[in-house]
Amino acid sequence: MKLAILSREPKLYSTTRLVEAAVARGHEAVVLDHLHCNLVLEKGKPGIIYHGQKLEGIDAIIPRIGASVTFYGCAVVRQFEMMKVRTAVESQAIVRSRDKLRSMQILARAGVGMPKTAFTNYSDEVPAMIEQVGGAPVIIKLLEGTQGLGVVLAESAKAAQSVIEAFHNLKARIIVQEFIAESKGADLRAFVVNGEVVGAMKRQGKDGEFRSNLHRGGSGTLVKLSRAEKAAALLAAKSLGLGIAGVDMLQSKRGPLVLEVNSSPGLEGIEKATGLDIAGKIIEYTAEIAQKKKAKAAPKAAVAQPDTQPDMPQ
After folding, report:
1. I want to staple 167 with a disulfide (CB 3.0 to 4.6 A). Which of 91, 172, 244, 291 is the partner?
2. pTM of the entire predicted model
3. How far apart are CA 143 and CA 230, in angstroms?
């Protein structure tokens, strides 16, 4: 198989591990910077030009689309889909997961447990909004935030109102969430590939930090998920249509609560915490969906038909 990894940084841990895992399994792997892909739109002939050359012969892609380039990155993935190239993560699933509000609406509809969450477009509704999630302290999140950025813990209703009003004055859209005190600054990251939890870790925030993201200085350790935690992770990934996902959950008194579902989860933290070959699982899944396409497209063997034509006169 010829597999393409869509990544802006070929030297990143996740990218290099995917290339290594592909080569180790006998596949050809190429890294494409999706921002350098030019899309050609023509009736019946969708194409992609990369550094002056038309991309051809790719069996499947693995999107590694950063949050800051979601729009163009998803357009590139969609173009590959139009070219009948299989993708490990579909473009529409990436779009769903990147919109925090939309993704939480989908998860709530599917019956996934999550912290109480409120959203409003009006600052004068703030006091009621805080009460709707159980009162202070509350977590305030930018809808466009990633890696723990744009997340604030407001320990009092007054502080929460000040922060929310400040965000609204900046025309920034935010959600307000219930604060789960019993999680004690830790969360769980379940890594899902093809409907299976292939690895999990517990992420603990550093002292005095309520955010557990590894980018914010948190640490990751191997953890065994409960049956309920596995079920929550699988349901969350399935609800958003993600073949590959990092599902972040809090442990609470009422069971696992999903915080976020990441469509391009990093591999370094999970592989180092678990010692597992997560990149290999992704490559095997991607090759499998590409193989299914090839098998489906293969022409059926011709079946010999009896000669029913009358003999021609000599």
Report:
1. 172
2. 0.86
3. 26
